[in-house]
């Protein structure tokens, strides 16, 4: 391995270490050039001196790991964990809000029963039916009235979560602008995206799979709530995936 | 000369670097690791890159300070022992002396027991 190749490897391993990494890279370069010059002075051919300098320097990964540990700032870690968790919460709440909008649309297009209809065999007492008819006097049956009522609850809960997500986002933007200033408070985007990919991808596959199987077997009553959750999670998952691919493409050039 | 490359020197590297710095005066990383190897007659032949995390850690702890030097053909980082570093070196030397004396004492007793068993 050449000195330049070792420095390239060290540069890659030090990625994200900022000023400490830049300084280490400069120190390593000076170290290696000095070691090669020493070797040449001792009568070694340049290539051999370079190979010996590289061998004596050792692996770059432990050096980078040691530099990370030496400059580890626990307060900065705690700050990033705080804003990172906050952003993960915002993403979750906004996804729920999106699902609420989809549930509303599904209810309007396919009927309230598709979103919040009951499974076969579910019955209500007469007094409960009276309650539902009080809310929806024009409903054709107790089941329909119950579905309309539950659809409202499904949409309302999710839209409220979405509004809470928007408020949390605005609060974070305000806090970053005036209180939690500086890069040490910046949310660790790769962490947020990884969590979003894992959690929302899982939700999308699980609930989407269940919904599609239900539809395939002709069970459409109450399927829409899971389907809207799955689509919302899938859309945010796709956005996170696009971000990840673009991020990896930026980092992958040789 | 036995090689201590495989031995875990992490706990002792700080002491070795502080002692070497005290001996050499302000030095850059390459000079330090070379002096450490020469002063130990080649016993502490560490992967040279490991010196930098240790120096950065010592600087964070206040035992050394560093600055860029433009004297050489290349820009190099020069490290220097601080007052606090000298005090830390004295403490660690004392601890090491007690530790080494105890290990020697125990190992000598074991050897004698082995001889007379």
Q: Bin the helical content of chain A.
A: over 70%
Provide the succession of SSEs of chain A.
HHHHHHHHHH
- Total strands of chain A: 0
Q: DSSP strand (E) fraction of chain A?
A: under 5%
Bulk shape of chain A: elongated
Lateral strand order in the biggest sheet of chain B: 1-3-2
Main β sheet profile of chain B = 3 strands, antiparallel
Spans of chain A of 5+ residues with little confidence (pLDDT < 50)?
none
Mean pLDDT of chain B: 85
Number of helical elements of chain B: 4
Helix-and-strand structural type of chain B: mainly alpha
Can you tell me the residue ranges of chain B where pLDDT is under 50 for at least 5 consecutive residues? none
Question: What form of chain B results from the Cα inertia axes?
Answer: elongated
The end-to-end span of chain A amounts to 17 Å
Classify the beta-strand content of chain B into a percent band: 5-15%
Word description of this protein:
- The complex is a heterodimer of chains A (254) and B (117).
- Chain A is an all-alpha fold.
- Chain A has 2 domains: 68 residues, no CATH class; 180 residues, no CATH class.
- In chain A, 81% of the residues lie in helices and 0% in strands.
- Chain A is built from 10 helices and no strands.
- In chain A, α1 runs antiparallel to α2 and α5 packs across α10.
- Chain A is elongated.
- In chain A, 33% of the residues are buried.
- The model of chain A has no long low-confidence stretch (mean pLDDT 92).
- With 117 residues, chain B is mainly alpha-helical.
- Chain B is 60% helix and 12% strand.
- Chain B has 4 helices and 3 strands.
- In chain B, α1 crosses α2 and α1 packs across α4.
- The mean pLDDT of chain B is 85.
- The chains are: A mainly alpha (254), B mainly alpha (117).
- Chains A and B meet through α2 and α4 of A and α3 of B.
